[in-house]
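Why show two proteins at once? Because comparison is the fastest way to build intuition. When a single record is shown, students tend to memorize it. When two are placed side by side, the eye starts asking what differs. So, the first record is below.
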Amino acid sequence: MKATGTGGMNFAKALLAAGAAVATAVQAAGPAGPAPVSVEVATAHTTKLAPHTWIPGSVVSRDDARIAGIVAGRVMWIAEVGQRVAAGGALARLDDTLVKLKVADLQAQVERAQAQAKLAQTQLDRYQNLAATKIYSPSQLDDARAQLEVAQHDVARLTAQLGQAKYENEQSQIRAPFPGVVAERFTQRGEYLQVGAPVVRLVNTVDVEARATAALAFATSVKPGQKAMLRVASEQLTGKVRAVVPVGDERSRQFEIRVAFSPPQWPVGTAVEVSVPTGAERSAVVVPRDAIVVRQSHSYVMRVAGNGTVERHEIESGSAVEDLVEIRSGVQAGDRLVVRGAELLEPGQPITIVDPRPAADRRPAKDVEG
């Protein structure tokens, strides 16, 4: 029994010693730090920016026309409003009964004139062959030549009239000069259409662009080929200035700008806002919009430090275009900034960078809002 008691005491001492050793090791190692957070980063860079402003505009079609008839007639059929028509497709059909009768009559007249011309040619040939025999006088030969010329002129005149009648017959089918949608009808089936009267309004809903007017003060800053932003509510896309009309309105003191964009996702007539440059380009440091954490009283970014942690830097932002924002203070070109999860980080927190996005991966902006 003594042996057993002595062994138990030794075992208890051993347990106490082991526990003390573990506690000493833990104390020497110190408290465990937070695990690194996986983040995505992007690099701030310098680019050329121009201040810009937003002006109101509208989506317009480059092909929007009132299609008129060039012949008169009763309307037998007309396309429905909203109907899509291909280029060359029928928009309306007029009664062509009288035109067809006119074509048939002129065809007969042409054939008669051709027969008369053939007869006149035969008569002239006969006179010329017998001229040496003195059977016919010179005046008769002259008359034969004149009759042939008259007959030939009749053939030419009637052939031209026949061609015109055939053209009018073709135009009794009023066709679309470009693809589009019938937006409005100006006549109805059964009505009599006069020459030049509008039939339908045809609008190309695919080849569209934005039309806007800007103050003449900006005329020297807007150039064809420049990039221009367009937005409708929260939706935004990039277009290109197709044309600048260098003629200002005397009353409004504004000039017209046309901006092409693709795809044509907004209907004709949609109100849009168009960005136009208002000054010369300047160098600026820009960062992705996702890198900025906005709070009620300030904004900041989380900058990657050299020891694998992050630092908080309050910033002053400036103009913005697309997903890039100008930084006026707080960031330098070359700084690596967290663009995913920055709002959840604390200063000094360790990070692991995944899918870094260098400056070369981002397209520099050309125009920004001032």
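Second record. Ask yourself what differs from the first in the token line.
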Amino acid sequence: MSTFPALNGTRLIKALRRLGFDLIRIKGSHRFLRHPDGRCTVVPVHRGETIGRGLVA
């Protein structure tokens, strides 16, 4: 079982930014982030919804 908490999109983006990810673009409610080492991720930011622990782990 994961020890990560369920987060909303905004809080997850803040955590990823602290880890070195940069926001590269926005399309609708999705934020695209890239790390300098090449890793990329997409974070949905939907009002009132959380991102489950299994997706954060």
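One difference worth noting in the second protein: The helical segments are 9-18, 53-56.
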